[in-house]
Amino acid sequence: MAVRSEYLDRAREELWSRESFSFIPDRDLPPATDRAKQGGGPRVGFAGFPSDYSLGFLFALLDLDVELCGIVTSPGAHPAILGDNALSRIADHVSVPLIRAWRINDEHSILNLGALHAEAIVMASFDQIVGVRALDTPAHGWLNIHPSLIPQYRGPEPVYWAIVDGVPETGITLHRAVARVDAGPILGQRHVAIRDDDTAGTLTKRLVTAGVELLPSSLRRLLADDPGTSPDVSTGSYRPSVGHRLLERAATAAEAERMVRAGMPNMAAWTNIDDEPVYVFRARVTGDGRPSNLPRLHFPDGWLELLATSRTCHCHHDVPDCPHRET
């Protein structure tokens, strides 16, 4: 039976009340004053981060008839992961181990994974490539949840690139993890339209919503050793990770405006104003060349008017000269 408690219900309600979801792994929860009781079912682990994206799927997993046997995370992704955070609070509340794996494929991590005696592990955002030995540790493998229509937009930043590229739709894919990035057999997939005003955050929330609906059937298929459908990665695309990207790298004002929306809330775009870096949170395209009180950038197709800016980056560094700022 599902794992339910007032504590989890409040945390779940607060998460889903947000207008947008972030991939930034810095979410915390207040300490629980009690412990949740688990029911029976297949022993399933979870791998991810204390981010909105990961938490959406962890809460969905706890709603299924499974026994959560442990949580795996990667401390190198963010300073918050070393301390108390949403994942550590939930692990404590549900009385399961939290594995902070600096290197998921080393011997120590393999032993910790084996001690979970998991039948499967559900992975929703993880910054390490899981090797064959780790993938083989649970009896039925790992289910990875990737926010794109695999084989398109494989890699670490699919939501960002789908918005920047101006494609009309993307999607969510649940697939058996293999020792290659986003390349395993597909067990569930759904298309999601991209709106003209979507930020990475608003689109991510809809992607998680669609993925949560696919989780029960995809996990059943994984546990049944369903072979799935192997994607032809030669026909797809792989896109790299991004930092705070310079708006002048865009070819048009329309592309620059998409860069602004794609950077929110995870990694805001930037430009220079009065020879100082400024991070841009909202912008609009205008063809009006008349003077404006707002800062603007000129492109061949018009002007990009900067509606909301900050001298600091608002990522976890929150400084003007952020090490994530690309030139």
Descriptive account of the structure:
With 327 residues, this protein is an alpha/beta fold. The protein folds into 2 domains: 6-235, Formyl transferase, N-terminal domain (Rossmann fold), CATH 3.40.50.170; 247-310, no CATH class. 26% of the residues lie in helices and 22% in strands. It has 8 helices and 11 strands. The strands form 2 sheets. It has a 7-stranded mixed beta sheet, with helices on both faces. Strands 8-9-11-10 form a 4-stranded antiparallel beta sheet. It is globular and about 65 Å long.
Low-confidence spans: pLDDT under 50, at least 5 residues? Answer: none
- Following the backbone from N to C, one meets helices and strands in this order, namely HEHEHEHEHEHEEHHEEEE
Domains, number:
2
> What's the overall geometry?
globular
Radius of gyration: 21 Å
Strand percent estimate = 15-25%
Helix count? 8
Structural class: alpha/beta
Q: Identify the CATH homologous superfamily of the largest domain.
A: Formyl transferase, N-terminal domain
Task: Briefly note the CATH topology name of the largest domain.
Answer: Rossmann fold
Main sheet overview: 7 strands, mixed
The residue fraction in helices comes out at: 25-40%
State the main characteristics.
alpha/beta; globular; 8 helices; 11 strands; Rossmann fold; 327 residues; four-stranded antiparallel beta sheet; seven-stranded mixed beta sheet
Helix and strand topology:
Layout: H1 6-16, E1 43-48, H2 52-62, E2 67-73, H3 86-94, E3 98-100, H4 107-115, E4 120-124, H5 132-135, E5 142-146, H6 158-164, E6 169-176, E7 186-193, H7 200-223, H8 253-262, E8 269-273, E9 276-286, E10 296-299, E11 302-310
Parallel strand pairs: 1-2, 1-4, 2-3, 4-5
Antiparallel strand pairs: 5-6, 6-7, 8-9, 9-11, 10-11
Helix pairs in contact: 1-2, 2-7, 6-8
